[in-house]
């Protein structure tokens, strides 16, 4: 209900740019350009955690980009999901590389349940849906596979060090029952709105890979071979933005 009201109110109430606050526009041209007029690049946090997939980001998490992401996530500016989805689509294209058989499967990293209740929406999932639509519009077969869920509660990540975040999230995610079948035959790209330390993406990649191995052992035969051979299928990830340092130490 809250999400519905936020979308309707955005249509009828005066708006200001989510990036710089300019009046009478949800997003001005300059702030939109900070998200869209850049080439997605590979990013690596420092320290780089073991198990982190190859990650591409559309923009640097600073200034107007930071403001737009926070406006969408924390202040209910849900109309910004479209442009954030366009930015994420560019990062997905870079992460997926040359298209292969089967669709590109966008697997969003889920927010904590209490955060979803407080915000009235799951930001990464909403942006992923917009990105999938943009990818299909531009000729890439893409769909969202929201198969990850939290299996236990986690502490608030703010204020935790990189190592503490890894410990906090370790074992926190799992693929929902039957979710492994939704990932078969496609190219998995983990997606999120923001990467800081990379802990969330490490845990998401582990959950997807573990599900693939478990499903392969349980199934046997040809399917076991197909799934076991795809245990690394979560080796790519895309985010809207990443911290400035993760761009600066890029070692491509």
From TrEMBL:
It comes from the Bacteria. InterPro entries: ComF/GntX_DNA_util-trans, PRTase-like, PRTase_dom. Belongs to the ComF/GntX family. This is ComF family protein. It comes from Streptomyces crystallinus.
């Amino acid at each position: 209900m809250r999400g519905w009201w936020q979308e309707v109110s955005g249509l009828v109430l005066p708006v200001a740019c989510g990036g710089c606050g300019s009046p009478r526009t949800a997003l001005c041209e300059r702030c939109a350009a900070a998200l869209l007029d850049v080439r997605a690049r590979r990013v690596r946090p420092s320290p780089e955690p073991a198990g982190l997939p190859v990650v591409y980001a559309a923009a640097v998490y600073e200034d107007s980009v930071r403001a737009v992401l926070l406006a969408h996530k924390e202040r209910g500016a849900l109309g910004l999901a479209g442009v954030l989805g366009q930015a994420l689509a560019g990062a997905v294209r870079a992460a997926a590389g040359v298209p292969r058989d089967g669709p590109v499967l966008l697997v969003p990293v889920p927010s904590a349940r209490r955060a979803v209740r407080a915000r009235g929406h799951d930001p990464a999932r909403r942006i992923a849906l917009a990105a999938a639509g943009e990818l299909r519009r531009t000729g890439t077969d893409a769909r969202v596979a929201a198969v990850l869920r939290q299996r236990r509660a986690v502490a608030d990540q703010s204020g935790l060090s990189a190592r503490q975040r890894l410990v906090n999230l370790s074992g926190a995610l799992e693929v929902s029952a039957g979710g492994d079948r939704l990932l078969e035959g496609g190219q998995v790209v983990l997606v999120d709105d923001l990467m800081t330390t990379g802990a969330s993406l490490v845990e998401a990649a582990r959950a997807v890979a573990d599900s693939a191995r478990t499903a392969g052992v349980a199934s046997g035969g040809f399917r076991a071979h197909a799934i076991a051979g795809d245990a690394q299928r979560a080796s790519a990830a895309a985010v809207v933005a990443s911290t400035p340092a993760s761009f600066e130490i890029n070692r491509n």
